[in-house]
Amino acid sequence: MVFNIAWCITGAGHFLLESFEVFLKLASNRQFKITTFLSCAGEEVARIYGVLDKLKQISPGGYYQEIVLEREQGKGFPKAGRLARGTYALLVISPATANTVAKIACGIADTLVTSAFAQAQKGNVPVYIVPTDYKEGIVTTKLPVVIDYEACRGCDTCPPLIKCSSNAIKMVGKPNIDLTLCRCCKICVDLCPYGAISFGKEVKTRVRKLDAENVRKIMLFEGVKVLEKPSEIHDAISSLGVS
Ligand SMILES: Cc1cc2nc3c(=O)[nH]c(=O)nc-3n(C[C@H](O)[C@H](O)[C@H](O)COP(=O)(O)O)c2cc1C
Questions:
Q1: What is the distance in A from the centroid of ligand 1 to the CA of 13?
Q2: Could you identify which of 64, 82, 100, 209 might form a hypothetical disulfide with 10, taking C-beta atoms 3.0 to 4.6 angstroms apart as the criterion?
Q3: Residue 182's domain is classified under what CATH number?
Q4: Does ligand 1 have an atom closer than 6 angstroms to the CB of 131?
């Protein structure tokens, strides 16, 4: 028996790499076929964290193994309609941004991912959601490629700027990374002679009360399981009796 799983990625850096690892492992089990759905912001952030080009390892193409981009889906999101037809065993939104959780909490379905959620509920498909802003307080998260301006010497000839194949580093007084262009090849990290560029640097951010409240709202939705972190996805799938 093969189970189709719909995996939605929204525009969150937090939990993105962890979610990718979980789905990479699931994809290695031939019992599962995974369709990956990306919101517009999800596509951008997946590129910024170096995950976008690797998604083919999870959804290599073919029926129910496609990568579905919101950017290419018009306004009605026809591929999300599949979820209402009961052809998926499960929908997982991981990571789920505060924005997507807020929309779901209010019943809004105007993006690929929020529409997939609404359709899944109409089709009685169980949904797992891993929010980035689970509970109020401080969370530690990882930054994409960033420049530490304390360490940067603003060299006249900046090797990362010269070698960046995406032309994502511009000189604006000092070198500056344009994340709308960065593909996260990380070549710049090794090329800076002063170690001023890093990837995955940890920072602390605050979860807003409003966002945590929205998470609590969606916990009450029928057919929805809210998970605290991506590592819980596998056990939750086992409890469905499909693995
Ligand atoms: C590099 C980067 C990382 C981000 N990480 C997060 C995050 O961890 N959590 C979050 O709620 N929003 C995050 N955002 C902001 C969302 O992408 C933004 O709110 C977007 O509108 C979400 O759209 P979506 O919910 O349709 O994917 C991030 C944005 C960028 C550029």
A1: 7
A2: 100
A3: 3.30.70.20
A4: no
Residue 45, ligand 1, Cβ within 6 A: yes
Specify the residue with its C-alpha closest to ligand 1, atom 13.
Answer: 12
Average pLDDT of the chain to the nearest whole number? 96
pLDDT digits (tens, 9 = 90+) for 11-68: 999 999 999 999 999 999 999 999 999 999 999 999 999 999 999 999 999 999 999 9
The reported pLDDT for the residue numbered 1 is 86
CB 152 within 8 A of CB 174: yes
Domain range enclosing 219: 3-137+207-239
The Cα 223–Cα 162 span in angstroms is 52
Q: How far apart are the CA of 41 and the centre of ligand 1, in A?
A: 6
Q: Both 189 and 106 in a single domain?
A: no
Dist CA 35 CA 205 (whole Å): 31
Ligand 1 mean position, distance from CA 59 (Å) = 22
- Ligand 1 center–CA 112 separation, angstroms: 15
* pLDDT score recorded for residue 86: 86
- Ligand 1 centroid vs 97 CA: distance in angstroms? 6
Q: Same domain, yes or no, for 105 and 213?
A: yes
Could you tell me if 51 and 44 are in contact, meaning their C-beta atoms sit under 8 angstroms apart? Answer: no
**Within the chain, where are the H helices?**
16-27, 40-48, 98-105, 112-122, 159-163, 187-191, 209-219, 233-239
From residue 124, give the alpha-carbon distance in Å to each of 57, 81, 84, 128: 28, 13, 8, 13
Instruction: For ligand 1, say whether the CB of 99 is within 6 Å of any of its atoms.
Output: yes
